[in-house]
């Protein structure tokens, strides 16, 4: 130890590698790429676009917008989109029968995407009854309770009509027990053994879904009711691992943690415990926060979005469902 050459400071200076940009790039541990982005898209029955007030900058797309949306996703290099339907309210019923109508909005939309871009773009479909049920719940209700096994039977049928329409990845977001195994079995029996299942395995009962429920028009139907009898409580961490273990055992190809930013610890635990493809969903409320603050000029949109997405990568996510996907792809491509 030579106090003249070192002065009072330690030999290790963490700032040395941060001094210039090329060096910061050189030591970067985590990177976001366009391949990490999954773009959730809302569709409605009609043409043109309708804005979603609680998601400034996101529109529901009509049938005539689907082809150009799909082509844009492909040209940006986004690997997959996730489609969500704003079902006309007159088609919402207690039994959510529209969910298993092979000609429903989501199936027609999937066909349009596949006709336009084929296998250049993966299509993910949500399996759950909330966009179709007059109650706004993800399952069927008997005696004021969302029933499990009867719901799972309908979900399996829903998955089949989506696979028939050309959906590449079935993504059950309903949180019923045992649905992954039943859906896998149904897909295999119907000759859809190549169709993947991305399970919303650790999905929390979250207030961050509010703008999504506005977008698909289920918030009015739900009337403030909670989904806590099937979605996980935010207090749970070990329980998320149990959920993931079950879904993997039942045949899930990949798993999701949702919401995103408040649950980065869960993403990390899932990834390190299971080592399987793990996705994060930066949900509608997270979008709304960042978009609204940016609109006000309180946050720098590009910088906060890219920082939030990199955070998911650092936590261990293999990909992120984000409404910012087209923006992020453009920023990454620059
Ligand atoms: N089961 C439906 C579903 N699929 C995705 C989301 C939320 C996505 C978002 O907020 O962006 C929800 C809402 C809910 O569970 O109430
Ligand atoms: Mg489960």
TrEMBL record:
InterPro entries: ALAD, ALAD_AS, Aldolase_TIM. The keyword Magnesium applies. Its EC number is 4.2.1.24. It comes from the Bacteria. It holds the Pfam family ALAD. This is Delta-aminolevulinic acid dehydratase. Pathway: Porphyrin-containing compound metabolism; protoporphyrin-IX biosynthesis; coproporphyrinogen-III from 5-aminolevulinate: step 1/4.
């Amino acid at each position: 130890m030579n106090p003249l050459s070192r002065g009072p400071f330690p030999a290790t200076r963490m700032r040395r590698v941060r001094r210039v940009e090329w060096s910061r790039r050189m030591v970067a541990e985590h990177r976001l790429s366009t391949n990490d982005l999954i773009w959730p898209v809302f569709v409605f029955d009609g043409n043109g676009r309708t804005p979603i007030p609680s998601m400034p900058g996101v529109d529901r797309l009509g049938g005539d917008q689907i082809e150009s949306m799909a082509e844009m996703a492909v040209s940006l290099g986004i690997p997959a989109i996730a489609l969500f339907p704003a079902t006309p309210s007159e088609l919402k019923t207690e039994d959510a029968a529209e969910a298993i109508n092979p000609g429903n909005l989501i199936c027609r939309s999937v066909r349009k995407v596949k006709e336009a871009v084929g296998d250049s773009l993966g299509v993910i479909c949500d399996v759950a009854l909330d966009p179709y049920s007059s109650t706004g719940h993800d399952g069927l209700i008997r005696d004021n309770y969302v029933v499990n096994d009867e719901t799972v039977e309908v979900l399996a049928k829903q998955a089949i009509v989506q696979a028939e329409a050309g959906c590449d990845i079935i993504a059950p977001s309903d949180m019923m027990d045992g649905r992954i195994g039943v859906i896998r079995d149904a897909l295999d029996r119907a000759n859809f053994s190549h169709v993947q299942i991305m399970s919303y395995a650790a999905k929390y009962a979250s207030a961050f879904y509010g703008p999504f429920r506005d977008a698909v028009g289920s918030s009015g139907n739900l009337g403030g009711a909670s989904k806590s009898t099937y979605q996980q409580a935010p207090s749970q961490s070990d329980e998320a691992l149990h959920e993931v273990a079950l879904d993997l055992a039942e045949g899930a190809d990949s798993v999701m943690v949702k919401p995103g930013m408040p649950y980065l610890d869960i993403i990390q635990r899932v990834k390190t415990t299971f080592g399987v493809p793990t996705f994060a969903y930066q949900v509608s409320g997270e979008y709304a926060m960042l978009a609204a603050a940016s609109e006000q000029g309180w946050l720098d949109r590009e910088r906060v979005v890219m920082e939030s997405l990199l955070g998911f990568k650092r936590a261990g996510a293999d990909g992120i469902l984000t409404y910012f996907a087209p923006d992020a792809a453009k920023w990454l491509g620059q």
